[in-house]
Every structure is written in C-alpha cells, then in structure tokens.
C-alpha cells in the first residue's frame, strides 16, 4: 500500500520470481542450509496473485503521492468526484486540479479489480472476487510481527492464531502479536484489504522507511507463509484430503486458555484507521509535531501507559502527561511510527 515500505514490495517480487521458477519447473539456487519456500509448490490449493498497490509512490520512494491510500477505501471515498472532493476539508483535494488525488483514483481502480465489492450493484462480500486480501506493511515502531484483522472474523481469527503459534514455536520469534481492528461496517472501512471477503494485514518492525532489511523480510515471510499454510490446510480439510487432528483441534490444544490478542481503540478522526493519542502539530506544517514522544515510551510498544505518565515533550521542554482520555491505563502501539507524521494518515500514537 505504501510506496516506501520496501519489505512488502520485495516479498511480492519474490513471489513473482517463485511463480516464474514454478512454471518453468525450476528450482531456486540457494545455500544448502537455507530453506526457500516456493508458495506455488508448497500451497497448491491456493490461487495467489500479487498487486503493487501504489506504483507511483514506489517509484518515488514515498509513502504516497497525494494522500494516504489506506484511507481511501470507504464507500464515501470511492464514490467521491472532483466536485465533492473540492468541498471536503482535505488538503489533498486541490480545487485548482482537474482530477482527484492520485491515491483516490488508484483506489477506485483497485476496488474495480476486486469486483467492486463496495460500489457494485449489490455491494458486499458476494461481489468480492478475492477471498482474502493480505496487505504487507512495515513500521518504524517496535511492533515485532503484528497480525492485524477486523474483529469478528472467525476465519481470520483462526488464521492469526495459527500464524502466531508457528512464528513463535517453529520460527523462534518472540515478539509476535495479534491486533484486532474495531468492527465496523465493511463499506466504512478505509484500508485496502477491506475490498476482499476477508482482510488481513502483516505489520513488521522496527525498520526504516525505504530500506530492505534481510531480517525484516524473513519475519514478514515467516508470517505470510504461516498464514498461507493455514489456508492451504483448511482447503485440504474441506476436500477431505487430510487425516488426524484438524487445524482447529491443533489450535485448541496450543491455546487451551484462549488466544492472546490486543484490541485497538475505535477511530475518532476521519483520517484514522484506529484510535490514536494525537500529538499537537505546528500551525505552518500539519505534518510536523509540536511535541515529541517522551523518551520513556520509545520502543515500548504493547507496554502500559497510565494517567499522569510522561507522554510528550513540547518545544519549550515541558513534559506533557497522558490525560487518561482513552482510559486510566492503555497499551501503546505504533509508538513514534514514521507514517503517522502525515496528517492524511492521522497523526499520533496508536
């Protein structure tokens, strides 16, 4: 979705290389101690396609060209025109321009690729021509591997639990979490994966924007392969091609006390995917904070913040405490995320 989050782009280009090798009945060349998974060989029951969502931003090594694409997939945004856009209080809607922001146009194109599940004649999951849309993201925050989907989706709940367990027990990653987005009407969801029947996002960090780190790619692929394996095994069960314990039985055994997960706060602002503690911004630049994240919070994602704890530091050096606006104690996520410095993404801490 974001042009400067190179890890996901690397991963989809790797998948297309795997497709090329698979179709040619060839093997990848690699060191003997390295396990390279070809998703078309390992998960044959799945029909896998890739999409580079924002090619212009990718070529420019920018998060976006005009506005955050992951805020453009609500039905209201998908149906807007140049006339309605100019009436909105949105900096990306320039009344002097004859067209919509680039990401608005691209979002319309992408929704059409997926069968117009929101703007089609009936609208809804029956119109979606993709069962699951998986969005690959990175973050500058210390989020580890975070598996994100909309609350209430039983299939994605099981998929996330499977990926969580496999990433921890087989891949050996400790910093793995499940994050639930607040359940909202499908047509109101603004993020790209919502054009599928099921939405799933893999977020991995910390890593800088515009950088490809081998370890971050490996973590992303571990989560992705775990998710694809769950879906393939589920397909095999539906076709009665497996024996022994079902995937769900194995998950019940792995998580006898339930699956640990986090829930994000509901979005308040129109440009938010989830609730955020907003930092103030400068009058002359809505993308530049007027207060920075306090050092005691840096790299402490999924850790508690309590009313009265240091939150921000102003330009005058004054410490701004947390005021309890989201409750006496909250768990912070996306702490000092670089993408949230943009006003069109919604500024602040998730």
Architecture overview:
The protein is α/β, with parallel strands linked by helices. The chain is 28% helix and 15% strand. The protein is built from nine helices and twelve strands. The strands form four sheets. A five-stranded mixed sheet has the order 1-4-2-3-5. A three-stranded antiparallel sheet has the order 8-10-11, with no helix packed on it. Strands 6-7 form a two-stranded antiparallel ribbon. Helix 7 (154-169) packs across helix 8 (214-238) and helix 7 packs across helix 9 (247-254). The longest helix is centred in the middle third of the chain and has 25 residues, at 214-238. The chain is globular, with a radius of gyration of 21 Å.
Determine the structural class based on helices, strands and strand pairing.
alpha/beta
Number of helices: 9
Helical fraction equals: 25-40%
Strand content: 15-25%
- Poorly predicted ranges: none
Give the strand line-up of the largest sheet: 1-4-2-3-5
The helix/strand series, from N terminus to C terminus, equals: HHHHHHEEHEEHHEEEEEEEE
Give the assembly state of these chains.
single chain
What value does the average pLDDT take?
Answer: 91
- Main sheet attributes: strand count, strand direction, barrel closure: 5 strands, mixed
Per DSSP E runs of 2 or more residues, the count of β-strands stands at: 12
- Overall, the morphology is globular
How far is the N terminus from the C terminus? 19 Å
From the alpha-carbon coordinates, what is the Rg to the nearest angstrom?
A: 21 Å
